[in-house]
Amino acid sequence: MCIRDRVSTQSTWGFNIQVQNLFFVMSVAFDEFGRPFIILREQERKRRVKGIDAIKGNITAARSVASTLRSSLGPKGMDKMIVSPDNDVLVTNDGATIVEKMEIDHPVAKLMVELSKSQDNEIGDGTTGIVVLAGSLLEQAYHLIEKGIHPLKIADGFEKACEIAVARLEEISEDVDIEANNHENLIKAAMIALGSKVVSKNKRQLAEIAVKAILSVADLQRRDVNFELIKVNGKTGGNVEDTTLINGILIDKDFSHPQMQKDIKDAKIVILTCPFEPPKPKTKHNLNLTNAEDYKKLYEYEQKTFVDMVQKCKDSGANIVMCQWGFDDEANHLLMVNDLPAVRWVGGSDIELIAVATGGRIIPRFSEITPEKLGSAERIREIDFGTIGEKMIVIEECAQSKAVTLLVRGGSQMVVDEAKRSLHDALCVVRNLVKKNKIIYGGGSAEIAMSIAVQQAADQISSVEQYAIRGFSRALEDIPTALADNTGLMPIETIAEIRSSQIRDKNPRYGVDCVGAGTLDMKEQSVYETFLSKRQQIQLATQVVKMILKIDDCIQPDEYELSLIHI
Predict the structure, then answer these.
(1) Which entry of 425, 478, 485, 521 is annotated as an active-site residue?
(2) What is the DSSP secondary structure assignment for residue 252, as one 8-state letter?
(3) Disulfide check for 449: which of 209, 385, 469, 508 has CB 3.0–4.6 Å away?
(4) Is 270 helix (H, G, I), strand (E, B) or coil?
């Protein structure tokens, strides 16, 4: 703002200063040495966009994010390589990971990032499809705005179309028996989630692992899955085929002494958060040793302290120690001599997980060790990995918990990280089916069926909102169009054939044949996804698009700067 009249400003010391004929709003302040300086507020650099131009700009920014993910959709989708400022390379086609790693500055484009994160947090799968759908809705909204339709009318039309689409989705959904044929339906659902990933070659094996992990921690009576009991660890070396499921807890530690027992059965665990060392005064102190006799007394005191600590652990009935802190070589030697295996420097989160899973209590002082506070497990063993010399501790068959651990292997850290992300998606799909055993068929068949229903409903509406509802119908078709495009098919011909086949045969299961199976019926191909995931995609994408359409004034305070000029 340019000000030429008299301006009254107040300094940080409370003085009123009259400044005339200045081009900027300013304040005079003083530093700690009494030197004055002027603060100029360059508000004229602040950008502001209003009205239809603001809405169009927001739509363009959000669509740019969606267009980036479009080619990653489906089993034939392409991967993205993302290089961080530190030159760390990430290769993935997971939608949530891609948008999270992208450096996005536009505030509306960041809404697309939050949209993908919401889908990932709530459902775990469909993070790419939801962003592509939102981008398609915004593209249709842009064309409608160009025709002169008010953004609020478009938003209301999209809301009505969303209700129609979800109702149609309910009609075409089917219930599945998750326990039939040794949980084969769960395995197929997990395989479909893994089909578009880097690990698709091993999708059957990983799908079986994901199903076993979910069923190990699931409460089928309440239809609930406690995800906190599933831990995914990765270790480079080996192949993806070496990925295993461990019925217990895996911690990235080894026994403190190489000669300690490596396999403990019927383990009684004492969980400590205090170190194996003599007590120290809490105030500053100096200890002067003037002769050998004093040194000998100090040594005997330390020996007695270590022996007492070890004996208290032995007297409680414990046969293994898990310690959050470290201990020196003297204590380590005494533990080994007394046949008491120990693991040191166990992380705080691992300590808590061990305590919950084994039914033990976390003990802060040696004087509080009692048999009632010990945890128990059927077996604790140390495993190593090939010739690299790395070791990990496995706690199997814990007493109070059904905790499981997935140990992911791969030839490089990049492969291990992508395999962990893929397994997370598969676990989420299986969990969603356990919570609600409804499915809808994939390959874009559900989107085309919803598009047909929304188009037919639009013909019954006489208001201006019918144009927005038709736009919603066209946006739904963009998902199967992207699938066909990424597969290498002719998109327009493919979608036209599927649409006409669904109407002619009244079969909502016809979709895009992405794998070349020779049939359009997704039921015959066993291609399906969870009802919860698809419904969430439609509803969340519509909500975000409505939010973007209602923004008509954009002020960017990030370009607002304060300049300090010393006088």
Answers:
(1) 425
(2) S
(3) 508
(4) strand
Q: Is the Cα dihedral 66, 69, 73, 76 positive or negative? A: positive
**273 beta partners:** none
Estimate to the nearest angstrom the gap between the alpha carbon of 347 and the chain centroid. 22
> What is the Cα gyration radius of the chain?
32
**Would you list the DSSP string of 438-497?**
EEEETTTHHHHHHHHHHHHHHTT--STHHHHHHHHHHHHTHHHHHHHHHHTS-HHHHHHH
Q: Is 425 labeled as catalytic in the residue annotation?
A: yes
Q: Measured at the alpha carbon of residue 498, what is the angle toward residues 492 and 502, in degrees to the nearest 5? A: 145
Those residues with Cβ within 8 angstroms of residue 450's Cβ, 6 or more apart along the chain or in another chain: 164, 165, 168, 169, 476, 538
Is 521 among the residues known to form the active site? Answer: no
CA angle 421, 423, 425 (to 5 degrees): 75
Question: Which of 68, 92, 97, 128 is flagged as catalytic?
Answer: 128
Instruction: Find the catalytic residue in 92, 97, 127, 542.
Output: 127
In the block, tokens 């893929």 appear at 422
Per-residue pLDDT of the chain (567 residues; tens, 9 = 90+): 333 333 344 444 443 444 444 444 567 777 778 788 776 565 555 667 778 888 888 888 888 888 888 888 888 888 888 888 888 888 888 888 888 888 888 888 888 888 888 888 878 888 888 999 999 999 999 999 999 999 999 999 999 999 999 999 999 998 888 888 888 888 988 888 888 787 888 888 999 999 999 988 888 888 888 888 888 888 888 788 888 888 888 888 889 888 888 889 999 999 998 887 776 666 666 777 778 888 888 888 888 888 888 888 888 889 899 998 888 788 888 888 888 899 988 888 888 888 888 888 999 888 888 999 998 888 898 888 766 667 888 888 887 777 888 989 888 888 888 889 889 888 998 998 888 888 899 889 999 999 999 999 998 888 888 999 999 999 999 999 999 998 888 989 999 999 999 999 989 999 998 888 888 888 888 888 889 889 999 999 999 999 998 888 776 654 433 333 333
Q: Tokens 């470290």 map to which residue?
A: 326
Residue 219 is among the residues annotated as catalytic for this protein: no
The tokens for 24 are 């900027």
Burial (CB count within 10 angstroms: exposed 0-12, middle 13-18, buried 19+), residue 14: exposed
Among 92, 94, 243, 358, the active-site one is: 94
CA 1 – CA 45 distance, rounded (Å): 9
